[in-house]
Target: UDP-glucose 4-epimerase
Amino acid sequence: MASSSESNVILVTGGAGYIGSHTCVELLVAGYEVAVFDNFSNSSPEVLARVELLTGRRVHLYRGDIRDSGALDHALADSGAGAVVHFAGLKAVGESVVQPIRYYDNNVVGTLRLLEAMSRAGVKSLVFSSSATVYGEPQSLPLTEEHPLAATNPYGRTKLVIEDMLRDIHHADPSWRIAILRYFNPVGAHASGQIGEDPMGVPNNLLPYVAQVAVGRREYLNIWGGDYPTPDGTGLRDYIHVVDLAQGHLKALERLQTAAQCFSVNLGTGTGYSVLEIVRAFEQASGRAVPYRIASRRSGDVAACYSDPRQAAELLGWRAERDLARMCQDAWNWQSQNPQGFTRAEPR
Ligand code: NAD
Ligand code: WQD
Model:
């Protein structure tokens, strides 16, 4: 592969993961060359075989850990990447409370090692996976990018620290091109049902849990709180189809090509749906019952969280297109075709 700032090779860290794999598909379909850098700590190499089958294109794989400088130097030089889309990270909020050192090491130290390697290689274009979690407890809704930043758990703090690092790096060297994308709640799957979300153990997130109840892997859903100040008492979130989210990364890369800059944008739909609305939409899409029980609130949860998506429309020319019915249909298509998820390379 050619090495230059004109390169159309994108190094995708965490490219075998849920959002990364969908983004690889969109990148390949759009004509980019894709090199994945992943240690498969939360994914399976089988994902990449499926991405290749879906697109009829080859994915170059660098198996490695983002904390390994030598492995990163090799991947950047060998792939000839002109830009990095950085998904690799640990993402379980509850786990981060119990294992903060592991989270700071993997997410913060790993990103620092990546930025150093990029700097050495002269690759200064980066799209980073941030999260709506950097807004902390919403002070006002919808959440605009100007909302004060705060974090309420170690996972969120890793995202906030990385965002600050990126802003500092751009401040010191304005030739960097950095897009910070703040995802709301990614759900759904590729329309083929060949790739999708495959959480380890008991899912923490709502959609995979609901999907596993619908397919019969779990008996019923616990709804964490029925007494929030929302129309039906259950929590409101801004669910966004993972393919819309993936396409937002391509728009961010295009925008970075226009000039050196550092920006942060929300990737959400702007609409909040309640847990009960999700349950009903999923029942409709799957034709299966999703039994539930109202349980007590989950610690750390907020009543409502949804985006103001206007800045992404203005800056990137991007808006989410797929509605809730489509999110549930595609999640069900994936879940029903792959009731046990991907085959794991190693037992987890
Ligand atoms: P995921 O766990 O499915 O994917 C992450 C990938 O990174 C996995 O393939 C994993 O093996 C890899 N990885 C982790 N640590 C690594 C390391 N040290 N070296 C190399 N590879 C490593 O998660 P996802 O849902 O696809 O999330 C991708 C990114 O988006 C993460 O940074 C996450 O924090 C962020 N994000 C996710 C959500 C969400 O709800 N899924 C929301 C907001 C932000
Ligand atoms: C959604 C709603 C729950 C599970 C988390 C992270 C956030 C971001 C996205 C990475 C809430 C309710 C859930 C269940 C339920 N990740 N729920 N029963 O909490 O909005 O965001 O994932 O950056 O940082 O915190 O998503 O899917 O866990 O919950 O009732 O079994 O579903 O209470 O109202 P959340 P979620």
Summary: The mean pLDDT is 96. Residues 91, 93, 131, 133, 185, 204-206, 209, 221-224, 235, 237, 275, 298, 301 surround WQD (ligand 2) (CB under 6 Å).
